[in-house]
Amino acid sequence: MSHLYLAILLGMTVALGPLALDAYLPAFPDIADGLGIDHGHVGLTLSAYVTTLGLAQLVGGPLSDRYGRKPILFGGLLIFMAGAVMVSMADSLSDMVFWRIAQGIGGAFCAVSVPAIVRDEVSGQDAARLFGLIGLIMFIAPAAAPSLGSLMLALGEWQWIFLMLAGYAAFLVVVLQVALFPKLKPRAPIKTPVRSLVTNYLLVLRHTTTMRFIGIQVLCFSTMLLFITHSSFIYQEWYGLSNSTFAILFAANIGFMAGLNLLNRPLLRRFSSVQLVRAQVIAQWLALVALVASVQLQGPLWLVAGCIIVAIGCQGGIVPNNMANAMEFFPNLSGTAAALLGASQFTIAGAISTLSSITGDQTLPSIAFAMLACSTGAVLLALGAPRAVALAKESGV
């Protein structure tokens, strides 16, 4: 199977997560009015989804190693589909949070399957290139998601957004059954006792280099999720922008991500993925330093938005390189490694996002400082990452 063909199918699959995350952002004011709650409390539905998306991967990853990628991925799609339908029928915040948690379980089983399938097929720099290509394709989803959400709002109510998500999950079931799984390399599931699925996590947790890369992923994703959680507040309440202008500015983040992702592929021919991660994490930190300074000096919208676009856009280079580095050391436990990576990323970032939603001080300066704090931690970890030569030697162990 060609890398492009595989990337298109896996990119379509992993796009389900960003769609469920971003498509309903323009509907936050409508949801708040419909449920009779504060705008900021709608962010709890996002945090609940993201946190569950992380925790449930701890179950889905080992299960995919033991029972195979297909049943776990398809089971996740079906759970996600049912959860989306039920969210559209929710008439209270508690109901919506509950069914978003169900969506998170289904999304987790899908999310953990994609990097595991990649590691089944390729490794090393090839994995970094394939992750990059998948990322480039899936960027269409978060770029289009707010616009799709705005379109659904124009056609009907906010509930239409979740019915659209359920329809997309059903579409994926058909496409993957026909076009993906018949073409994958045969892989025998690991027939080990169920209790060993838990102890396998210790192998990953004890691997200090892998945990360093997981830490980088967690902190960089936390930076991005803080923005996503508060993006509607920043642009629609703080600056008073319309749904369409908000969607355009949000899409600009994804456009910058895609540009860096495209640049990352030729850079991998000259530099190691470790070097690229280090450079891109530092670039994100510098953009956030500029953001904090702009906010403190009450700079214009175009300057604040520009700093955000650069900072969030750096994820386009950080994610594929860092995932390849973290997954490199566990070819036979790729599902478990992917689960720990995803669980750490979404759970910790979700907790940070939740805290930022329930605290009373929800202002642009406080959000910018929180993003910078997460990025500073990522820089410290990236500066201590091994050089490419050391990484290559260690991966052969």
**What is the rounded distance between the termini?**
28 Å
Assembly classification: single chain
Q: Outline, from the CA principal axes?
A: globular
Helix content: over 70%
**CATH-defined topology:** Growth Hormone, Chain: A
Mean pLDDT metric: 85
Runs in which pLDDT lies below 50 for 5 or more consecutive residues are 389-393
Strand content: under 5%
Count of distinct strands: 0
Order of helices and strands: HHHHHHHHHHHHHHHHHHH
User: What would you give as the CATH superfamily?
Assistant: MFS general substrate transporter like domains
> Largest sheet, if any?
none
Give the radius of gyration.
Answer: 20 Å
User: Can you count the helices?
Assistant: 19
> From the 3D coordinates, which CATH architecture would you assign?
Up-down Bundle
Just give the CATH class: Mainly Alpha
Task: State the domain count.
Answer: 1
The helix/strand class is mainly alpha
